[in-house]
Specification:
single chain; about 190 residues; alpha/beta; 6-stranded mixed sheet; 9 helices; binds zinc ion
């Protein structure tokens, strides 16, 4: 796999507002402490955009119908280009996480160029597998709702944050925003 880009790492993290403030701050604190070196080199941290909550609601709606309550959407130029939900049981595929399903659908429908620089919204912070796929796909921005640490209270998690993984891949520029509608994503586990 070629990885010769001489890009500066940009694992920027920002917390969010409103109902998710406490959870967002908690999760971003964890990411910040883990990925501090990357953040020092980071581009300006991305604020939560006006559209972020709207796209996150679509990801959470996908999660609502998943085998496990995880969902994702990929957005490019303000348009949803792919959706995914956890299909682990349905497909008999333990790698069919919401993010992986969305990435594979985007690849099948539009090719890898559509992923480059896109934004992926996911109801749960990506695991190590999905975060690797996100980085190799050159997705430019990651927005997640519930953090790995929040999710771990409900379901098994590989205890490494997306910020930690991004910090280990300084050749991939990506910005990360955590905690968007985290409370709503976590409510899916209370069903
Ligand atoms: Zn995953």
């Amino acid at each position: 796999m070629a990885c010769h880009d001489a890009c500066t790492a940009a694992a920027a993290v920002s917390a969010v507002s409103r109902r998710g403030m406490v959870a967002g701050l908690a999760s971003s604190t964890a990411v910040l402490s883990a990925g501090l070196s990357a953040i020092r080199r980071a581009h300006a941290a991305t604020a939560v955009s006006a559209d972020d909550e709207g796209f996150m609601r679509l990801a959470i709606e996908e999660a609502r119908h998943g085998d496990f309550p995880f969902g994702a959407v990929i957005v490019r130029d303000g348009q949803v280009v792919a959706r995914g939900r956890n299909l682990g049981r349905t497909n008999g595929d333990p790698t069919a996480h919401g993010e992986m399903v969305a990435i594979r659908r985007c690849l099948a429908d539009r090719g890898s160029a559509a992923l480059r620089g896109s934004t992926l919204y996911t109801s749960g912070e990506p695991c190590a597998m999905c975060m690797g796929a996100i980085l190799w796909s050159r997705i430019g921005r990651l927005v997640f709702a519930a953090s790995v640490h929040e999710l771990a209270a409900k379901i098994d998690q590989i205890m490494i944050t997306s910020g930690e993984i991004a910090a280990k891949a300084p050749f991939v520029p990506i910005t990360i925003t955590g905690g968007v509608l985290a409370d709503e994503a976590m409510q899916l586990f209370g069903r």
